[in-house]
Amino acid sequence: MKLEKFPAETRGFANHGWLQANHSFSFANFYDPNRLHYGALRVLNDDLIAPGTGFSTHPHQNMEIITIPLSGVLKHKDSMSNEWLYVKPNEVQVMSAGKGIYHSEMNGSTEDHLSLFQIWIIPNKDGVEPRYNQEAFNPEERKNKLQVLVSSLDDSNKNGLKIHQDAKLSRIDLDEGKTFKYDLKSEKHGVYIMNISGNIAVDNQELSNRDALGVSKTTTFSIQANTNSELLFIEIPMN
Fold this sequence. Notes:
GO molecular function, one term: metal ion binding
Strand order of the largest sheet: 1-20-17-22-15-13-14
Number of domains: 1
InterPro entries: Pirin, Pirin_N_dom, Quercetinase_C, RmlC-like_jellyroll, RmlC_Cupin_sf
Helix content: under 10%
CATH architecture: Sandwich
Strand content: over 45%
Number of helices: 0
Binding site for Fe cation: 58, 60, 103, 105
Cofactor: Fe cation
Protein name: Pirin N-terminal domain-containing protein
């Protein structure tokens, strides 16, 4: 089993006033040749967006984009629709940029900050028709058990959101003292664990708030929750 720890404080950070962004991988003005991606995971940005601001209309192509609001409300509009859509905590949005799409992602509140994870996954198919979807997930259904948020369009499991990649995004909220066993799809896959909050241990690696851990070259591993903890798993092909 290969473990790679990515402490929270080693992420790239940018303060744009309206946006405070933490970059797990090279992005915008943050460049680290050793942190270009983790398998098919290209971007994991931990953003805090000021009220009434956000990312105005801009293009994307051939990327699977997943956004997970943690607090506040996200307001989305894209070139497939003129309608503003709202995404709240415990909801997830996916967008396949495919052959090309324009979109805007804004803080839907004029009073409260918006905290979110934006995730980019390299697709296994280019030039597809752009698509968008969002879904709400009951937090009670991830209490000490895995809740799958996103999986492959080629997967026989029809639950949750879908993307063009043999990947799986899931969450779990572990109570203090609980142990959870995670099973990977294959040894060709790896899992990037983002410790949203709390304190956990995997083998001899301990993770606190916003620390991350890459786990690969195995088909299973166990997590021990030292405190109440919230975790995001991003399982992707490593080659």
